[in-house]
Amino acid sequence: MIEGVPVVFFYAGGAVVLIVSFVALMALEPRLAASSGHYWTFDLLRVPLIARLVRSRVLRFVFQATFASLFVFIIVAGLFGKQQGGSNIASILTWTYWWVLLVLVIMLFGKAWCWVCPWDAISGWLERLSFWGVNRQGISARLKWPKALRNLYPATLLFLGLTWLELGYGVTTKPEMTAMLGLLMFFLTFFPVLLFDRGSFCRYGCLVGRISGLYSLFSAVELRARDQQVCATKCTTHDCYHGNEKGYPCPTFQFLGGMSKNTYCILCCECVQTCPHDNVGLNVRPFGADLMKSSPVRFDEAAMVIVILAMSTFHGLTMTPTWQAIVRWIEGTFGVPFLVAFTAGMFFFLGGLVLLYVVFVRVSHLVARAPEVTRRELAIRYAYAFLPIALFYHFAHNAMHFFVEGGNIVPLLSDPLGWGWNLFGTAGWKTGVMLPFPVIWFLMVAAILIGHVWSLVVGHKIALGIFGKNRQATVSQLPMLAAMVAYSVMSLWIIAQPMAMRTAM
User: Is the pLDDT of residue 30 over 60?
Assistant: First the structure.
C-alpha cells in the first residue's frame, strides 16, 4: 500500500473513472466506426543526419558494446558481489531499472531494445567473427527451425518457466541467481545462433523479444515500406529478405513489402542497408496504431497476450501478504514444501484467469447472436484488446518499484559489489523514495486507467471490425467490457496492498 493514501479512495476513485471511461467510449463510437485505419506518419529517415546514424554499423556496434559491457558487469557483480539484493548493483540494475525502462522504451520506440540487445550482440559477434563488418559466411550450421515450433509457443513456455524460476526462487532478491538467469538467457540465445538459420530464436523463442513484440503494437515507432507498390512491382531481388553485400537478410524472416505490424520486426534496420530502392521508412506514428487497424491475427499471439495479462497480475500478487497467506495455507493444508505450494498456486491462478477469459468470450458470442462468427475467432481477436491493459499495468507496477527503490543505486555506484568501497563518496548516502508516495500512487492509478481506456477503445474497434453493425458490436463487447473492468479493479486492488520490495537496503 502506498503510504498517505486512503484505501477507500482507490476503489471509489477507480470505480468512478472506469464508469466515466465507458461513457467516453460511447461518445467516441461514431469516430471509431468511421475511421479507416489510416494514420499520419513522419519518416525519421527523411532527416539526413538520422539516416546516416541509422546506417552506421560502427555506431550500432558502439551501443551494443556498451550494453554488452554492462551485461558482463552485472554478471560479475551478481556472481562475486555481496549476496544481498540491496547491497549489490546487479539486482537493482536488472529488476528496478531495466524492467521499467524496457517497458517505457517499447511504448516510445518499439523494439529498440533488440537494436542493442547484449545477448544477440555477443552471439552475433561470435557467430559472424565480425563486430560490424558484413560477413555472411559465419560458423552457423544454418539449420531450419523445426516447423512445429514456428510459432510463439516456445517463447510463451520459456516465459512461464523463467517466471516460475524468478518468483519461486526469489531471484529478484538474490544477485547470484540474477546473474545465473542472465547467463541462461545468453546461452539460450547463443546456441540457436550456432545451430539455426538467421535469428530463429529471436523470431520464435526469445521471451523478451516476443513480449516486447506484442507490446510494440502500441508503440509510437514503426519500420515500414514507404511504398508497398515498389516492393510488389519494381523490386525483383527482395534484398530486404535475402540480404546482399551491404547487409544481412532479415533475421526474423520479414518481407518488408508485406509487413503491416510491429510484432516480429526487431528494428535491426538491415533492410535500410540492403534495400536497393531506398524504400524503407522509420516512422513516428500515433500510439496504438497497429491495434486500431485490421491486421492478420494468430492464435499463438492471442494465447501469449492472455498469458502476459495473467502473468503481469501474478507478478504483483506474489509481492502481497495475500499471496503469502495463500501459499502458507497450501503448505499447511496439504503438507507440501514451499516450492510445491507456490507452483500449485501459480498454476491455479493463471489457469483460473485463462478460464475466466474463455467464459467471457463464450458469453460475448452468445449475446452477439452471430453464428457466422466462431468462438475461436472471437477469442483470438478480442485478446489483442487486452494488450494496453497488460502494458500499462506492467509499467505501473515497475514504475512503483523504480520510484521507491531506484534511489538505492546512488550508494551502489560507489560500492557496486558491496565490498565496502566508496569510489565516488556516495556509499553512505540514504536516498529514500524518489517521489512523494501520493504522487507515486497517482502515477500508478493514472497508468492503469489509461491502459483500461485504450483497451476499451481497441476492443470496440475490434468489435466493429468483426460485426460491422454498431449495435451488435456494442452488445458483443459488453461481456468483454465487464472482463476489462474486473481486471482493472483487480489491478487497483493489488497496488492498494502492502508491497514487498525487490532490493530493500
Answer: no
